[in-house]
């Protein structure tokens, strides 16, 4: 296997209209991935739709449309080669299904750029994005203060947003002193791929440079193999091809696997026949890679998005009930016993019922707070007992943190995010 540069998945998040797609599109264009004639077409399209300046944002939309047509096995986020790495850029969309996609994106990301417009600054959603990134286990966050052109590239405007964001970062347990703040303009191309001439005061990296400045993600290859399925394709001449990111372990051709829960809800046994990445066949693929796999004896109707491909020798757990630590981010009223929202776990969506609120946690110290709790509300962190209303594959944080995180959504909004601390495994009677 040729020496491949280490891969890193990086998600761009931020409030709708704060310009993250423009930053990503500009990066693709300036780094030469998007050819000039294609950019010209997008520019004309933007003018035609009365959205001058939206051409860069269209770059990622085009990729999205290709993905919906399912023409490639590759997860066709967007690939970028830096001097040190192979970067997969995930652009989380800004409309209302944004958070759902962001959760999928964030749960796959090693690092994130939080994009905030210089003029508008911190928005109510900014805090939600930070909590989500933290709970989904994204350890490294860089903050790009975008649209510097709208504030005349002034340093004091940059510093004002920087201090606002620093307060939020502290609130979620991130040290602002160790966080990189970038001064950029996606539309004008300042400090995206090329260094800007317009901000002599700014001594930090460009977005492209920052890709190589993030710490190397820890590869969880020593854990058992897990690959949550993101999509299932039918490819002519190959057969059924589930696609997803290998969260932990190493997938190998010839490996015996178990897919949980599978259509039967009891798991399906199989064997890895082939592994494909960027249209090339590999004999093995480690954690962190997005792959397409063909599995002996498995048809399209046996499996679906949300199932998990596991090492048969050490499969994941399906849960009867579980105990989790959750942070309530954005609930309109309060959460009490009996509440049954949808849990987004890796790529699965399963309703789970709140059975008990065990106790609240003091967010400043992380210690349990005394007293009985009947309900929890925004800003609360608590330990709760939950029961899935369907088949759910989940692992304890102490066993496999990559398979323990989830977000809780209700009526189109993310209300909370959390991590599984303990669980009761679902047992099946012998058939």
What is the count of structural domains? Answer: 3
Percent strand: 25-35%
The CATH class of the largest domain is identified as: Alpha Beta
Mean pLDDT comes to: 85
Helix share bin: 10-25%
- Specify the structural class: alpha+beta
Radius of gyration, rounded?
A: 22 Å
- For the record, the CATH architecture of the largest domain stands as 3-Layer(aba) Sandwich
Number of strands: 24
Low-confidence stretches: 66-76, 93-100
Give the overall shape, derived from the CA principal axes. Answer: globular
Please report the number of helical segments.
Answer: 7
CA-CA gap between termini? 42 Å
CATH topology tier name of the largest domain:
Rossmann fold
What this model shows, in words?
The chain folds into three domains: 7-213, Rossmann fold, CATH 3.40.50.300; 226-311, Elongation Factor Tu (Ef-tu), domain 3 (Beta Barrel), CATH 2.40.30; 319-425, Translation factors (Elongation Factor Tu (Ef-tu), domain 3), CATH 2.40.30.10. Residues 66-76 and 93-100 have low confidence and may be disordered. It is 20% helix and 33% strand. The protein is of the alpha+beta class. The chain has seven helices and 24 strands. Helix 1 (20-30) packs across helix 3 (55-69) and helix 2 (36-48) packs across helix 3 (55-69). The chain has helices spanning 20-30, 36-48, 55-69, 98-107, 124-135, 155-171, 207-213, and strands at residues 7-14, 78-81, 86-91, 111-117, 140-146, 181-183, 226-228, 231-235, 239-245, 250-252, 256-260, 268-277, 280-282, 284-286, 290-296, 308-311, 319-328, 335-336, 342-345, 348-361, 375-376, 381-388, 405-410, 413-425. The strands form five sheets. Strands 7, 8, 9, 11, 12, 13, 15 and 16 form an eight-stranded antiparallel beta sheet that branches. A six-stranded mixed beta sheet has the order 2-3-1-4-5-6, with helices on both faces. The two termini are 42 Å apart.
């Amino acid at each position: 296997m040729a020496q491949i540069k280490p891969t890193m998945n990086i998600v761009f998040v931020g409030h709708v209209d704060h310009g993250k797609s423009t930053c990503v599109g500009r990066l693709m264009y300036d780094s030469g991935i998007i050819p000039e004639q294609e950019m010209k077409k997008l520019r004309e399209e933007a003018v035609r739709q009365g959205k001058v300046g939206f051409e860069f944002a269209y770059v990622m939309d085009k990729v999205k449309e290709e993905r919906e047509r399912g023409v490639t096995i590759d997860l066709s986020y967007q690939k970028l080669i830096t001097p040190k790495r192979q970067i997969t850029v995930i652009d989380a969309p800004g409309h209302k299904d944004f958070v759902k996609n962001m959760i999928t994106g964030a749960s796959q990301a090693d690092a994130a750029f939080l994009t905030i417009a210089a003029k508008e600054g911190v928005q109510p959603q900014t805090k939600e994005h930070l909590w989500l990134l933290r709970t989904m286990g994204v350890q490294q966050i860089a903050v790009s203060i975008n649209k510097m052109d709208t504030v005349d590239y002034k340093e004091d405007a940059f510093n004002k947003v920087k201090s606002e964001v620093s307060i939020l970062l502290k609130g979620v347990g991130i040290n602002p002193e160790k966080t990189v703040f970038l001064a950029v303009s996606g539309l004008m191309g300042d400090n995206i791929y090329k260094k800007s001439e317009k901000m002599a005061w700014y001594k930090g990296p460009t977005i492209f440079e920052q890709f190589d400045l993030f710490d190397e993600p820890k590869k969880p290859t020593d854990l058992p193999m897990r690959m949550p399925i993101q999509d299932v394709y039918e490819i002519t001449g190959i057969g059924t091809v589930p696609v997803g990111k290998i969260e932990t372990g190493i997938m190998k051709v010839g490996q015996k696997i178990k897919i949980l829960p599978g259509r039967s809800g009891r798991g399906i046994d199989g064997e890895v026949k082939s592994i494909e990445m960027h249209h090339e066949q590999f004999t093995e693929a480690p954690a962190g890679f997005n792959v397409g796999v063909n599995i002996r004896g498995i048809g399209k109707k046996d499996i679906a998005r949300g199932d998990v491909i596991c090492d048969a020798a050490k499969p994941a757990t399906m849960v009867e009930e579980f105990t989790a630590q959750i942070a309530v981010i954005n609930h309109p009223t309060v959460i009490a016993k009996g509440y049954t929202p949808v849990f987004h776990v890796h790529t699965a969506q399963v309703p789970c019922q709140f059975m008990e609120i065990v106790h609240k946690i003091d967010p400043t110290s992380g210690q349990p707070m005394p007293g009985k709790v009947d309900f929890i509300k925004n800003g609360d962190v608590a330990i709760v007992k939950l029961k899935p209303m369907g088949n759910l594959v989940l692992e304890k944080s102490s066993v496999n943190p990559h398979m323990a995180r989830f977000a809780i959504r209700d009526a189109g909004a993310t209300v909370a995010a959390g991590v599984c601390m303990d669980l009761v495994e679902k047992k099946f009677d012998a058939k």
